[in-house]
Model the fold of this input.
Amino acid sequence: MKDFAFLNGNEAIAYGVKLSRPHVIAAYPITPQTKAVEKLSAFVQDGELDCKYMHVESEHSAMACSIGSSSVGARTFTATSSQGLLYMSECLPYASGARLPIVMMNANRSIATPWNIYGDQMDSMHVLNSGWIQLYVEDAQEALDMVIQSFKLAENHEILTPVMINVDGFVLTHTYEKVEIPPQDQVDAFLPEIKAAPHLMSDENKMSMCISAGNQHYMEFKIKQHRDMFKVFDELEKIDADFLKSFGRNYGGAVEGYRNEDAEVLLVTTGSVTGTVRAVVDSMRDEGKKVGVIKLRILRPFPVDEICRNISQARAVGILDKNISFGYEGTVFTNVNSALQQKGLTISTTNFIGGLGGKDITKVNIRNMFENLLSGEGETVQYSNMGCAL
Done:
């Protein structure tokens, strides 16, 4: 019999972590992530999770602690958000460069100044080049499931790369949904105990971590790290297919299309706004308008082949960014345009900037984006919530 619960996104993350049986959780609270680590603390305190819970003094310390525990082969989880992620950023390349399979939840939240606690994706975009796999989830069920999948992905010895699961602040972290909680025995069968990689430390295998490398060797380390990132796509597809067999759900791997096969225009999205876009797509389809949506589930590594294959038939594509690279454009827009250039595809693209500081992206906003694309008035960067072009 299936077990369902009414959970918010933070709690769903916590259940996913509990089911994954980590050895160490390093935690420092920050809004809107706090409820996730509080729930995990309760699991440990109540004896439901056999794990070392370390309440550290800062986000920087949380990642330093995670690096230490992962370097001896412990399955490790941490969580952060916004300014906390930026405070942690010094340590992120240490974790990825040392090839440590840490899994972290980031509750996407705006960054100062002005001070704002609500959700956009400026924080994760700031650390896009830190060497971490970056996943973006749409709802609480996907959040729970991707924790389990992320440990399996990160711990693959061909990949050994930390994973950041990005969860939209408040819209997802604090919204309650019906979530299926998988049975522990099924998760154990899907996600076996971690097998320590040969480069990790132990009493029997003494070594130094985070070594120095001169200019004759440093580039080789970085190129191998870069090339191993591309192995993520095949493994993510395989894990997704295996998850479907085990639990009856899957998410399409790196990219998930909705009513995109015959669409004239498409909107590319990340995270929770995708559900609202689907509702608008259905409404406009009923009116005979050929629109669709492409949900981008991973930004690093960037799925060039998958995104181009899913949008190649469209005449115009809008990219909805919940971030802005000041003085230029949205970061997802930059990446999509680069992918199109690499594949030699000539498609009109429009960048819509919306949702900064948690500002609502409404159905009316989304319909206006589609109408803009259908009318052929694109090829500009637009503030989708304010109706004016840059």
Observations:
- The first helix runs from residue 9 to 20.
- The longest strand covers residues 3-8.
- The CA atoms of residues 19 and 184 lie 6 Å apart.
